[in-house]
Fold Alpha-methylacyl-CoA racemase.
Amino acid sequence: LVVKSGGGDRCARQAAAVMALSGVRVLELAGLAPAPLCGMILADFGAQVVRVDRMPRSAVATDVQGRGKRSLALDLKRPPGAAVLRRLCCGADVLIEPFRHGVMEKLGLGPEILLQENPRLIYARLTGFGQTGKLAKSAGHDINYLALSGVLSKLGRKHENPYAPLNLLADFAGGGVMCAMGIVIALYERTRSGKGQVIDASMVEGAAYLSSFLWKSQNLGLWNRPRGENLLDSGAPFYEIYKTSDGKFMAVGAIEPQFYEQLIKGLGLDSGKLPSQLSFPDWPEMKKKFASIFAQKTQAEWCSIFDGTDACVTPVLSFDDVASYQHNKERSSFIKNDQEELSPRPAPLLSRTPAVPSFKRDPFIGEHTEEILLEYGFTEKEIAELNSDNVLEIGKTKANL
């Protein structure tokens, strides 16, 4: 599916014509993690994504998810710069903006203006708290959004504070991925109505929506015990992570009885001499027993024992090991760009129009300013005048560090 170097770029260009989002023009206003992921997802599946970077020249590129994008550097705080973006939006399908409520309106770039000029535009607003409500103009980060979604209260071990799992759930899953899904939904709807619309993507609400199972399973008894004492939150001995003798870890997820029986067998225990699997009072002691057994062998030894079984026991792989793991290697789940940087291959796989990610390095700030403006109908004279007025930046050939 994937070729790494020069030939890969040719393959990528050829495949771009048949990728699912081929021909979709996206303008992504540079921001922090969630919006860049949203733009990268669209680019991976064939969209033509232009990252509109900030000026002045002292600006530093913070987008490490620039795969497949091009960069245009523009000073939006100056009226001529804002006017350039308005003109670009007239020829775009999607605008992704990551600013707090009111920022775009102050620039004269709010949806009421841009949608009037281009009624087909999908105007995606990706923020922490959304466009309305008490906190719409407030600052925040993943941990704050996760806290207000209710999800954070469920994460953490017994007798410990709630634990935020990096910034994956609100920023990326509830933010970037949900926004990308909203954009694709809006693009599909546009095929029938011919009209664009505004997407209000709140990371609080996105993270909450991701947790729909937690809400809808409350009556099943899965979450009626204190945090860290339930089936899926580290309470159960058969849904836990255990340390091996070489300081590595094994992940155990043997929930169903038939899988649990294979776990017990692999650990060399006799289920007839153990408490019932769902005997809550015995869980803490069983965890200690399992931990002591896992600590007697290396990760590789446990992999050998459980390989080919349905015990739901797998190694906890490091970033250094994940690409060489047999299953991942067989599926080419990880790819390298032309600078040997490793990253996950786009998902999910489409059988007929799969994503073909770019293998080129991420763009430098302003690297493609001139070619983008020419594509969007600006004349060379207009570009030269904007450049002389320091409204935009042309042709950077190195990173701005």
